[in-house]
Amino acid sequence: MVSAASFVLTKVTLESLAVSDYSLAVIGQYGFVVTDLVLNSLANVTEKGFWVMGNGRALQKLTSLTIGSCPGVTDVGLEAIGKGCPNVKNFELHRCAFLSDNGLVSFTKAAPSIESLQLEECHRVTQLGLVGVLFHCSAKLKALTLVRCYGIKDMNLVLPAVSPCESVSSLSILNCPGVGNSTLAVVGKLCPLLHKLELVGLEGVTDTGFISLLESSKASLFNVNLSGCINLTDAGVLSMVKLHGSTLDVLNLNCCKKVGDASLTAIARNCPLLSDLDVSRCAITDAGITAIAHGVQLGLEVLCLAGCNSVTNKSLKALKKMGDSLQGLNIQNCKSLSSRTVDKLVDHLWMCDILF
Length: 356
Prior knowledge:
alpha/beta, Leu-rich_rpt_Cys-con_subtyp
């Protein structure tokens, strides 16, 4: 099929098939116009298959590559793919148990066009691999995402005098439990021009590491997600608002249980462009809601207060005041809001989508 359609076949997905190394070799030799390739759960494909595919040299037009749950993905095979697919822009690796720092860094060196790199459950990759990627990435890398990579843990690395990776504008570290203050400090120095920052479920991160990253930043943050960073406090949020409040558009503090009214007061005073705010399950009270209602936000469109049990009926007036701009309001599991108050909100904010 691949050889017969070698000049018309642009997208290929092989998933949960009993194919062998031979199939990948054919793709590497005949995929002349393939731009999108997905290889998922190919249990019979070995290191040789990926190595041969990379060395086939036909995948010159490949721009998007996703590989998941393939035991044949090793350092050797990944480096060959990097060399053989020079125009890949978007690359995702999921559950590749045998990939190590060496293979990841070798791939990064060999792939000059990578713009977006995502690693999920690649547990042999450590902080050294992360730093290596940022050291050696091309000037085109814009987005780096790490999801449930348990091998990345804090190390006391001393960085040599190298140029930072100024092309990276988006960094997402999601549910990597070993990531703490040391990792954030290193990443902050290597990625000083971030516009989007996602640090989700990082219980080892405290204000110290977060502020260190913020202070290394030379750009303005637009989108920040700190959901599940349970050890961040008002001090970290206040530092972020002081440095980046004027440009923040989206802010997610869901489950930051040590964040309270002081943060909302600072946000109200310093974030004029904020359109989406999530403070679900935070330690906020009616005073914080009142501060937001009288703040500088002229276009707050989405406000999430789910699980904020200290928000009471006293916030009714403040919530009504925000009705001119609000398009979405989440007050689910706000146990101190009575059904009567909710009914009044629904009547008054009739143009707003309210979850209760």
